[in-house]
Amino acid sequence: MQSTVEKEIKEYLSKIKNFLICDSKLKKSIITEIEESIYEFAETNGIRNIEEIEKHFGTPEDVAREYLSLIDPKLIKKAVSIKRFILYATVTALVIFVVFLVITYLDAREDFNVYFIDSLPEEISESLLIKIL
């Protein structure tokens, strides 16, 4: 089989993987099964491009939808719940971090609320020079 077809098959499998909503172990098992079927079909029929594979198996979304219809809905709901929890936890941590940065910035601004003098008046600078010398 040509390397371009193999690359297209990998992209096809990657798209299927993106459409699958389940835990990683089950997703890996499904992708392995599909990959074996595709390579067997490709070798048996002398496939030269991805269009022939899509014509036989369907679009990545269709393939994923077909496999998802066979999975217990509780597993899909669990996977979605876990992803939602991770998303909420990440957003919460990010918000806390931003609030921390804002508070730290405002606190630092208060600590440095002083005036800086670029030059000393002539009388003071002469008296300092006399003391230093």
Tell me the fraction of residues in β-strands, as a range: under 5%
Number of helices in the DSSP assignment: 6
Report the structural category.
mainly alpha
Helix content: over 70%
Overall mean pLDDT: 81
Give the domain tally. Answer: 2
* Count of extended strands: 0
Topology pattern, helix = H, strand = E: HHHHHH
Rounded to an integer, what's the Rg over CA atoms? 32 Å
Ranges where pLDDT stays below 50 over 5 or more residues in a row are none
Largest sheet: none
- Taking the alpha carbons of the first and last residues, their distance comes to 89 Å
What does this structure look like?
The chain has about 130 residues and is mostly helical. The protein folds into two domains: about 1-70, no CATH class; about 70-133, no CATH class. The protein has six helices and no strands. The chain has helices at about 5-20, 25-45, 50-55, 60-70, 75-110, 120-130. The termini are far apart.
Which helices and strands occur, and which strands form pairs?
Blueprint: H1 3-19, H2 24-45, H3 50-57, H4 60-70, H5 73-111, H6 122-132
Briefly characterize the structure.
The chain is mainly α and 133 residues long. It folds into two domains: 1-71, no CATH class; 72-133, no CATH class. The chain has six helices and no strands.
Comma- or semicolon-separated keywords:
single chain, 133 residues, mainly alpha, 6 helices, 81% helix, 0% strand
